[in-house]
């Protein structure tokens, strides 16, 4: 039998145009499933890798969000059968990466698409849903009980949490998940046009991150709930990780006892059409932290070191949160193009131009 192949969008070099290559289609073994991919999303990580070469060696297939139909299953798969419509987050190597027509990956990275949701809608969920749980558990030390007891009140329910960059995909999901677990004082930053939406999701107060008085506004909001208790903001989720655009201000908000969970990489210089980006993986030198502040770099790629998350997070918790309306699909732009090459390229260009509270979703079939 001749080896099967499929089309894949391949990064052949830093800031080089993508190419379409034929890649081997891998027959699933063990608990792997082979997915006929229908949709993916392009996310900032794709830009960090394509333009900044972050933690990769081309040639490399990018992307981590796959939505599609199970085509074949390995002998140990119990979660799915051929024909199931699934969505999930899988990124390792060139076999699991999402920007191709078929991927082979472990079944526990996926969930069945709940009734009532389109494939495009669910493409907006997995990457940052998993990021938020990882951030809470690994970096902030917050419990994420599942199932959540009916009368559950988290241990730090009344401590303000700052979500910087709440209009981002990470930020929107952070607000919804934290609200669900009972955190009462979610203080956020975003552009003014998103304030109403983010309050609807559960933010108590939202401030414009471009306002030169934003730090004072955040500290005043914290004082309204906490009086003179220090630190004013005990926990921060920096959904942006930009040295100039978020960390500089957060370093003024954070005080002894504050934990700051920062989405890596730290962006020293943003990618654009004419600028090569610069990144750092070192959060300790990314800002002038006051004595006693704990900056932490979020690394969701290691989330499945947590055995409970490996068993439940993608397969069970993610679809339940979606079908119960605890998290909403994000607003998305369906990226157009005649071919996979055009769609993937257009999505990357859109990331370079900058996006505002929307996910870039595109069809993965070659034509
Ligand atoms: N290390 C990890 O485990 C991990 C996991 C997931 C994501 N990440 C990283 O986290 C970052 C965010 O990812 P994402 O997918 O959530 O991004 P995204 O949805 O593409 O973020 C876009 C949003 O960023 C906001 N923004 C841009 N600059 C800002 C600033 N200086 N202050 C506040 N908000 C700002 C914009 O807000 P407005 O529209 O309000 O202007 C925009 O809506 C990326 O760098 C990604 O690679 C890391």
From TrEMBL:
Residues 13-328 form the Enoyl reductase (ER) domain. Keywords: Oxidoreductase. The keyword Oxidoreductase applies. Signal peptide: none annotated. GO terms for molecular function: oxidoreductase activity, acting on NAD(P)H. Pfam families: ADH_N (PF08240), ADH_zinc_N (PF00107). Belongs to the zinc-containing alcohol dehydrogenase family. PANTHER family: ENOYL REDUCTASE (ER) DOMAIN-CONTAINING PROTEIN, HYPOTHETICAL OXIDOREDUCTASE (EUROFUNG). This is Enoyl reductase (ER) domain-containing protein.
């Amino acid at each position: 039998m001749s080896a099967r192949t499929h089309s894949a969008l391949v990064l052949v070099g830093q800031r080089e145009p993508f190419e379409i290559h034929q890649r081997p289609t891998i027959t699933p073994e063990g608990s792997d499933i082979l997915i006929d991919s229908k949709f993916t999303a392009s996310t900032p990580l794709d830009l960090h890798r394509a333009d900044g070469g972050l933690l990769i060696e081309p040639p490399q297939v990018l992307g981590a969000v796959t939505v599609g139909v199970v085509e074949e299953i390995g002998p140990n798969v119990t979660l799915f059968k051929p024909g199931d419509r699934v969505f999930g987050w899988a990124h390792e190597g060139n076999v699991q990466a999402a920007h191709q027509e078929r991927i082979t990956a472990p079944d526990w990275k996926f969930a069945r698409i709940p009734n009532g949701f389109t494939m495009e809608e669910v493409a907006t969920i997995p990457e940052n849903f998993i990021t938020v749980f990882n951030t809470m558990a690994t970096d902030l030390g917050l419990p994420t009980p599942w199932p959540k007891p009916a009368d559950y009140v988290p241990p730090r329910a009344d401590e303000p949490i700052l979500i910087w960059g709440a209009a981002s995909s990470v930020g929107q999901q952070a607000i919804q998940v934290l609200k669900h677990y009972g955190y009462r004082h979610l203080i956020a930053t975003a552009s003014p046009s998103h304030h109403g939406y983010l309050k609807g999701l559960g933010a108590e107060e939202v401030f414009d991150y471009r306002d030169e008085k934003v730090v004072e506004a955040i500290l005043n909001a914290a004082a309204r709930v906490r009086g003179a208790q220090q630190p004013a903001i005990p926990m921060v989720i920096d959904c942006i990780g930009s040295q100039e655009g978020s960390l500089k201000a957060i370093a003024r908000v954070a005080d002894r006892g504050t934990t700051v969970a920062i989405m890596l990489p730290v962006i020293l210089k943003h990618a654009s059409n004419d600028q090569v980006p610069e990144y750092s993986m070192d959060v300790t030198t990314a800002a002038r932290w006051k004595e006693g502040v704990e900056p932490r770099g979020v690394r969701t790629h290691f989330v499945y070191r947590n055995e409970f998350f490996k068993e439940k997070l993608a397969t069970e918790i993610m679809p339940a949160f979606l079908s119960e309306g605890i998290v909403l699909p994000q607003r998305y732009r369906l990226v157009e193009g005649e071919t996979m090459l055009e769609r993937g390229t257009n999505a990357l260009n859109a990331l370079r131009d900058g996006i505002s509270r929307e996910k870039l979703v595109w069809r993965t079939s070659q034509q």
